[in-house]
């Protein structure tokens, strides 16, 4: 049947309580029982939870065929943990494994091999790139991958839709009882927000660190009371790829122009007042918007109450200049943000549940005024795709995109009108990852489109004299420049399910047909 | 647009882009400069002139520049390139050719002769391709008036080129521009005497935003029509500085309106807000309205 974003969802997927997407906020106010994990109590005195190897930990946890194991992606493309664990899982001959990660990328290309071999049969993630994405798109994974937003992942774990048998949590530092932190080690990632829900809901929790510190490692991100075992390895990741140098602010005139439009959009809305809240993505124009925001704040003598999200240097700079009161942090993208969360008392670590879950009693995103986000594609219904490339292959991450878009009062998508020969503004996105009803403004280098659902914003932006166009005009302009693209060709087989935040099915991704040129 | 309108159109910002870089020239109109200067000269490596011409030709032929004027800067007359540059520019349908290192009225006439040949060769509208001259040497500046009047039906105006000019004058860039004062003033006098437009040189330090703004303000004060630019980031500042004030717009609107009413009644001299107004005020007032429209500051019906 067709769901609320007009996507055909195969009936065979709508079983075991799975529903088609009914619209954003459909389950607002609904009650549910949270699930709880199996806990092996430790009543007697003991010295340490440290085990000599990952293999030993896997065995002690009693890992068997068909189990689900989880990972976080705070180490980004520098992560060694997934590969180290999977190598041992495979060596132990364990089969039918499901990986439930907060994200996977090119650092985990070896996993694609395990998918091909049929050892990994399930994948649940908020981001998928590199060879894993290709393997899934080519139909190599036995069951459809499940793609969720960051908030949606927390909700799914808490509601028991995914049961984690063992969570493997890489940590820059840990003590012998498993109090783990994102700072103080050789490979600091700042925060461990994604792993918090895993630690609270997995039956077994293994902390893997390369820096064992004295007990107690406080204040901990992952609490020892939830941890079964600790393993010390030589390196949990490549520090250079975990906390990268701050991205240079884009000097590309096109990026800067779009960034300036974003800032002007913000200034034109009624939400731009002293004490607003704000989030940007880490892409070129989104990041550059910070630079145009600063003079606007100074001119009006405004301060930002809080900034949330993946944190980057521009946010830290605003905090240090006193233009932001508080940073709440669920991921760090560079060294500056890692150091800031460690040192600055107004920079706080939060869990992904606090950040974005639609299943708790009120996450931060619900109080966001503005979010600036990127897109691979936006269609004339304002639906956004951030997961499949123009060839239909999985190569992106919904991440916090659907969560912040749903929560923020003003959601701004910024993207160039065309990329190379591909129109970014199009008739119909390949995959819907964020429903159009959550998108308010689309900023491009060719003009700005306001969602007709927001006549108030349209009036405000018109009043401000911004270069407005309809989304259809933008699409037509894109097609006029690069031509109308052929539709990507897929087989019928569903290789991934794109879940809405509430767990209903927003869209499906099908197996790609080999390209003919 | 009539030829007169084309000659006199608004040219506050003329953005240089290397014709060697298709990614730049394919849609630079998004930055909304008044004119794009598609460069075949210094921005293009000596062994890439062919490739640049190729990109330029196809850009001119296929891209809709959405009303932004397309000017081609050709190589100097002392190079082996300029004749082919002119053929490409005319064949592509460029709006204007910018003559680099122009020193004499004969230089203008030589270029115009080749434009005429190219217009015939490619069956273009005779006289469509306008010209402007870049004065880069003291000799060029001293010959400015002759250059300005060398081809009235095609000549848009003159621009000074600071880099070479400063070198010839044994000086360099100084804030305040005293080193350029003679060159700028002489060229401006010549351009105004000939009734053509006049453009200032580029400002090369992109990070010195205050220095750039100061120079643009001085340009406006001296009476320049516009400025050559090296980055899209400079466009907004030029348009902002050149934009008329609300008061200027209101005054200009009143003058034009009252003038139209009175001239219909056969009255040549009248007063507006106590100031005596006659026909001499009208081009200035109309120019203010044109600027105000281009800056998005005037939404009236004039």
Features:
heterodimer, A: alpha/beta, Glutaconate Coenzyme A-transferase, ten-stranded mixed beta sheet, 15 helices, 25 strands, 27% helix, 21% strand, B: 302 residues, TIM Barrel, 2 domains, two-stranded antiparallel sheet, 13 helices, 16% strand
Describe this structure in words.
The complex is a heterodimer of chains A (517) and B (302). Chain A has 517 residues and is an alpha/beta fold. Chain A has two domains: 48-242, Glutaconate Coenzyme A-transferase, CATH 3.40.1080.10; 253-487, Glutaconate Coenzyme A-transferase. Chain A is built from 15 helices and 25 strands. Chain A has helices at residues 54-60, 81-91, 109-116, 130-137, 150-158, 193-201, 239-242, 253-268, 284-300, 313-320, 335-343, 352-356, 401-407, 455-463, 471-482; strands at 50-51, 68-71, 97-101, 120-125, 145-147, 166-171, 173-174, 180-181, 204-209, 229-232, 276-280, 304-311, 324-332, 347-349, 370-373, 377-379, 384-385, 410-414, 418-419, 422-423, 425-426, 441-444, 447-450, 490-499, 505-512. In chain A, strands 1-10-9-6-2-3-4-5-24-25 form a ten-stranded mixed β-sheet, with helices on both faces. Chain A has an eight-stranded mixed β-sheet with strand order 14-13-12-11-15-18-22-23, sandwiched between helices. In chain A, strands 17-16-21 form a three-stranded mixed β-sheet. In chain A, a hairpin with a 2-residue loop joins strand 19 and strand 20. Chain A is globular and about 70 Å long. The mean pLDDT of chain A is 96. Chain B folds into two domains: 3-242, Alpha-Beta Barrel (TIM Barrel); 246-294, no CATH class.
